[in-house]
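Q: Joint fold for the lines below.
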Amino acid sequence: MITDFLLHHTPALLVAVPLLGAFLTPIIGRISPIVRKIWVMGTMTLTSAIAVLLVYLVYTRGTFVYVFGALTPGLAIPPDSGGIPIRIIFTVDPMGAFMDLIVAVVGFCVILYSLSGDEKRTGLHYFYTLFLLLITSVLGMVSTGDLFNFFVFIEISSLASAGLVAFSVEQGRAVEAGLKYFMISTMGGIFLLFAIGILYGQYNALNIAMIAERMQFTSLDKIALVLMVVALAMKCGAVPLHFWTPDAYSLAPSTITAMLVVVSQASLYGLFRFVFTLYNLTLNYVTIGWVIIILGVLSMVIGVTMAIPQKDVKRLMAYHAVSQTGYMLLGVGVGLAVLGNQAALDTYGFIAIEGGLFHIINHALYKGLLFLTAGAIIYRIGTRDLNKMGGLGHSMKYTMIFFMIGALAIAGIPPFNGFASKLLIYESVYLFNPLLAIIAMVVSILTLASFVKVFHSIFMGPTLPEYSKVREAPPAMLIGMGILAVLIIAFGFFPQLVVDSLVAPAAHALINQGSYISAILGGA
Amino acid sequence: MFWNLPYISVVLLTLIGISIIILKKNLIKIFMGVNILTSAVNLFIIAVGYRDGGIAPIYTNAPSTNMVLPTPQALCLTSIVIGVATTALLLTFAMLLYRTYGTTDVDKIRELRE
Amino acid sequence: MRMSKIVRTGSDLMYPFIFIFGWYVIMHGHLTPGGGFQGGAVVATGAALVIVAYSYQEVNAMIKKAILMFQESGGLVLFIGAGLAGMILGFPFFYNWLANSGSLFGMSVIPGPNPGELNTAGFLPLMNIAVGTEVWGGLTIVILYMLSGVEKEGI
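A: Joint structure:
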């Protein structure tokens, strides 16, 4: 009975459980802090469990279609609607499930860490309400099959994350960063809504599969595509529009920063989903592919060069996040540029997409871990200035090990997971254009140089007198970081297993537009 | 020509909104620009949904079957609700910034420039 | 900044009517233009009128913020709960499980032009009530918090 219920309603529960948890937090949180912690942790555990179940179902049974408000969950096209899907439909294909898995894993670790990492803040009811709302919105963004629904979830994520970035309102700077982030997100949302309006006006539909089937690629569609790419590139922090990233990432609480990485990756998912599923071969894929490649290369180079001189540890990591986003754009962009050329797609294009997608999950893991270690250091010593740190390796051994794992992974050193995905990208991009691969390798070396410097200035050297009483981070924070670190090492040791079982189905689902459409519209 | 008037207004409102956001220095005026831009999108969606001769899809008043699809109205309402939340949060930010910096001039709220 | 007695008495007199009108809009959301958000905003306007007419301290003593917060969360929980109830009954999330059931809001709609029957539309009125309660609490609390910021500046 209960398993039947779970198996039938997984996508709805995925959104309903954290939403209900979020709205009950202010009421239940009033009882006592312990009850609030248990409630928040319980909600997140349940959400993660549902997400993992959904991922399992999607990978074993194929695309999961769930229709809200219909008589039965699978009834995508009601008999009296004239062949048009009219309701809000969640379409979870392996690509969406892949993103759900990232949100579930990172969200679980971050909430666990946050139980002790954020306990000194005031107004924690609202902190966790917004946090759970943020998780809901990201899960919704990657699961929905409806354009307008995507817009609503992206706006919820903007509202929640802007509120969380500016959560320490006593600092004017945090509010400034929050405002900057929110203005960018709002403008992005407005552009996206314009694009949705244009598509609706032409095709009388909001369902992604329906529009994809009717897509003509008229000049209006080109305008819509440009608006969508601009809006989502703003949200994911690719280079010409990256200026909010360092401010928002560095001034938000560390737990929020780790989640913001996932939010920007969900925007990246939206970008890939629209380009591959909505437009696919109708668009001028060589041009759009090169636009994405150029955005990626610029992000890589500018991100890493801006990161090297930074003094603030989180600001430095934020610029590295911009740089790593470039790798994903590069990998998937190369795949897009050869989409119509079957021979090239088989030799290297598909591997490039796999590399880009594999890098998304790797990036979420190691960047989340790095931000959490930075948070643990700031939690214990109270400063974020690299010049004032030093000698912490004596007192914070576990944090040091976790930082080292994260830093080696981001720099692409074997046997960590960053190496596996970067290798896939190098190999395939080299066949496409050797210059791009060389740029990617140079950026990777610069990343390593930057992190060696950071590692040295935080952990090495004699214990500084002002930090002689610094202790190790609390256990909940260590467990949260530990799970991420174990996953990083596991992914690094068994990359082939992960690629074959997780990434390749997602990449297939991404480039195979027909299967997405037929999941909704039937065998047509 | 006449039937294009809503679209012309959308373009004008968009241009006005974007120029306010870019040119004005006062935070409150910038937020007004954002609101104008939101209104432009709402008008656009409503204009897209207009069908000549269609009637409102209210079941009890239906004399014929030429009802318009209510989707654009629903989109527009949702967008208005989101706009309210956005404006409230933006104004709260302006209030908090005024408390810290004593000004709403964006040129003076610049601690983060590095 | 307390307004004059005329304004205060006027707002006292207006408030019940605004409140009733707001709830009218909420309750008739499934029959006439309007609905939960619009009606809730109208009710919150009434609260804003009272807040403007009286001073912040007086209003702060009059209105309990905890109750508003409870309204806000409670409305949203009712909304999600109505959706989840459909799932427990074996239908998808947000299935209209009350429509045509014959119980509360469960009358079948009479075809053809007619003034409309309040007791129809299934759980849509429930949704409207939930959203109305939430918007009423939420917007009032937003106004109150913003006013508290202004008060601290001494304006």
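Q: Anything notable?
A: The two ends of chain B are 51 Å apart (CA to CA). Helices of chain B lie at 5-23, 27-49, 71-101.
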